[in-house]
Amino acid sequence: MSTVTVTARRWAGGWELILGKNDATQVRNPDRAIQQVRDYLDTRDPHIDHSGVEVVVIPEPERRITPEHPRNGPAQEEKPLPFTRKRTRSDPACPDGASSQH
Asked: CB-hemisphere CA count at 13 Å for 79?
């Protein structure tokens, strides 16, 4: 199984998922980041099945606000981001009641 590492950068509309220079996709909800990357890879190269690709999402640290940039608003404390979640049989988003790690 191959591994793809992406950097997640927060923006007003959600998250930019950066795979490399000039290579990115976007997602509104971080819970969908891993599947969005697989879908993007499938679109980019439809002859390869990317369903087994391990996707590692590394959140980019929040940019610190300095007095020179007051329009950006107050600095925010960095918090862990929910880019992965474990789906269980009771999760309605989990197909066929199977348990999977996303």
From this structure: 7
How many structural domains comprise the chain?
Answer: 1
Q: 0.70 cut: is pTM over it?
A: no
Residue 70, in any domain of the structure: no
40-92 pLDDT per residue, tens: 999 999 999 999 999 999 998 876 545 554 555 555 544 555 565 444 444 44
Residues in the chain: 102
Give domain status of residue 75, yes or no: no
